[in-house]
């Protein structure tokens, strides 16, 4: 059952006039990584649009987990295909539009299982590109990350061409380097085979629809759990890393705009330039503004900090000028993002 907040988010997306929903009439849409955060909200949004606009679209969701996949498919009137994206994908019938959301995103895995991270990124992307080529799809969006930017002399206002240095001796960089490889692979498939692929580079993304999973160590989840429990927020680092954030509903809208209006072979940042700040600032907003000072922010680094797979302190603020030229605009600021997660989880609880 959807919370009131998530329903509002989905309505916000499907009522936005920048998206031409009629483009999806009588079409087949395929979503990989469909049971992840982005994939799940995307599937629910497409399902609601399908119903509201009588699109008669077929929605196919691809995921490894049978339980989550079947539940999501039943709720959204979709077709579930249980599949390991590292293996070639075969689906009967046509496919018109694809969102490739499957990836390993857990920081500890990037450090402890770098080969798995690289293989999943590369093989998964190659398999979906081969599938898109065979099906002669109309458009494919590959999800990438702001981590591809690495380190440059100026880490503010980064555009899509401002790629910097990535330390290849650091196993944690298996993720950004694999994402770079996949972006280049997409360019290759467009250049050599004319596969109509675009890449979306996501910044730090969170919002309503995130699962309240105690094992989810993303900072937004940790902070929100502490706020709901009225417990102090404990940081394992000084929280100096600064980057953009973007609300889940704004990201979904961005993906749809890129799918419909993006230029083939190009990459687009999805980021809210007005919602940038340090990890410490996020914690402070929750403790001071949202919780009214009832909780505090405490810095307590563990002895085995390196083994936890945290990215080094960085300043990385990307702009979304290129995407905004296509008509996309973000709606939710940093404080609103955090408030809406709390409201979402409190309703579910």
Fold and architecture overview:
With 349 residues, the protein is of the alpha/beta class. The protein has one domain (4-206, 247-274, 318-332): Rossmann fold (3-Layer(aba) Sandwich). The chain contains 11 helices and 13 strands. The longest helix is centred in the middle third of the chain and has 22 residues, at 114-135. The model has no long low-confidence stretch (mean pLDDT 93).
Q: Nutshell version of this structure?
A:
This protein has one domain: Rossmann fold (3-Layer(aba) Sandwich). The protein is built from 11 helices and 13 strands.
Mean pLDDT: 93
The geometry reads as: globular
Radius of gyration: 19 Å
- Number of helices, counting only DSSP H or I runs of 4 residues or more: 11
Total strand segments: 13
